Each structure stands twice: as C-alpha cells, then as structure tokens.
Amino acid sequence: SAQQVLREMQGAKDDHLVQASGCVRMASIAARDRGFPARVRALGASRSDACYPHCLHFFTVAKAAMQRFPTDAVGEGCISALMVLALDDRDNKRATVSVGLIPIVCQIMRQHPSIEPIQEHGAHLLALLAAHDTAQAPTHAKLLIVNDGGLSAVAGALQRFPGHADVQKWGVAVLRNVGNQPQNRDERDAVGQVDGLSLAVVALELH
Asked: What HEC string does the chain produce?
C-alpha cells in the first residue's frame, strides 16, 4: 500500500535502494489507481489521523530522497511518481511547486542528461506544472522553471534525443507552456534564449 511504501522510505532515509524502489512503487500504485492522488494528500492531513499516525507525505519524502541521493535511480523513480501524481490532480501540481520540487527536478535533469526516462518524465512533469500556472491561478511554476535551469535542461534533452517522440512531445510542451502568456515577457524571452522555436520546428519535422 501507499502507506507502507511511505513508512519504509521514511524509516530508511539513508538507504538509496529503498528510496529508489519506494518511488517506483508509488508511481506504479498511482498509475493503477486514479483515485490515489487525493489519498496521498490525505496522508499528510493530520498527525492525529488514526489510519496513518506518522503523517508521511510523499512530496516531502520524495524531496528528501532526491536531495540526499541525486542519483539516476532515485531521481528517475521520484520524478516518475511525481509526474503520475500530477496528471489529473491540480492540488498535487500545487503541492509539487509549494514543497519546492521544481529546483530539484531541474537539477536532476541537468545531472543525468543521458538518462531518457529522467528527461522524458521530467519534461512531462514540468509541462504539467507550467500549464497549471495561469494568470487566474498563479503558482509561479514558470518562473521557477526558468530560474532553476529547466529550459536549458529541456533544450538539451530535445537536442540529445531527437528520435524519442515522448521527449520531443513533452520538451516542446514545456517551451510552449512557459512562454504562452503575452504578459510574461521574461518567460517568453527565456524560451527564445534557448532557441525554443527552432527546437519546436525540428521536433515537428521529425515527428
């Protein structure tokens, strides 16, 4: 169960294998159960929660794991789980931003540029977070992606994996979603600085 996975991760903070496998298991649970994201939030709702007294929250657990072990295995597992959790749940998107995961995700993408799943799932996650950052409900995800090197990481992935359709799809989505608001001149300029238009054109030609 999700509760058991979180207990194991929290109880073995210095074991990178437990952290990596825990994130992979969370991603698998989330993918199987579309109602799972709301329950993840509920796990952190109250320390007096009788069904889960330790109050472990996956977003903070994942953050700690990636900070302690910025390896490809832990990074790939955590980013994959975060991406699945963000797919259809706006609260999980906000939690991902507010807990401070964008800088860590961008860092891991930069540190492991040749690992396709990290680049694909990282780009997918950043695209979801940027799309959710709107003028009506700002989360500042776009600015964080720009400031923490997310665009350069995505641009590198697009150049490195021209034949990987999903990397191209989500990389272009990040560029589009970060630069799609006319009033956000800094974000649009940042997309231009990584030659975003040319990268998008190449992706369209290839796929």
From this structure: CHHHHHHHHHHCCCCHHHHHHHHHHHHHHHHHCCCHHHHHHHHCCCCCCCCCCCCCCHHHHHHHHHHHCCCHHHHHHHHHHHHHHHCCCHHHHHHHHHCCCHHHHHHHHHHCCCCHHHHHHHHHHHHHHHHHCCCCCCCCHHHHHHHCCHHHHHHHHHHHCCCCHHHHHHHHHHHHHHCCCCCCHHHHHHHHHCCHHHHHHHHHHHC
* Dihedral, 189, 191, 194, 199 alpha carbons, nearest 10: -140
Report whether 139 contacts 96 (CB < 8 A). Answer: no
The pLDDT assigned to 4 comes to 86
* Number of neighbouring beta carbons within 10 Å of residue 131: 17
- Two structure tokens written together for 182: 């006319």
Q: Would you give the DSSP letter of residue 138?
A: -
Q: Which tokens sit at 160?
A: 């490195």
Going by the DSSP 8-state scheme, the letter that residue 136 receives in this structure is S
**Residue whose entry in the numeric block shows the structure tokens 């665009």:** 151
- Flag residues of the chain having pLDDT under 50: 45-56
Tens-place pLDDT, residues 47-57 = 333 333 333 37
Residue of 124, 122, 120 lying closest to 106 (CA atoms)? 122
**Spatial contact of 101 and 59, defined as CB atoms under 8 Å apart:** yes
Hey, what amino acid is at 20? A
And the tokens for 168? 């191209």
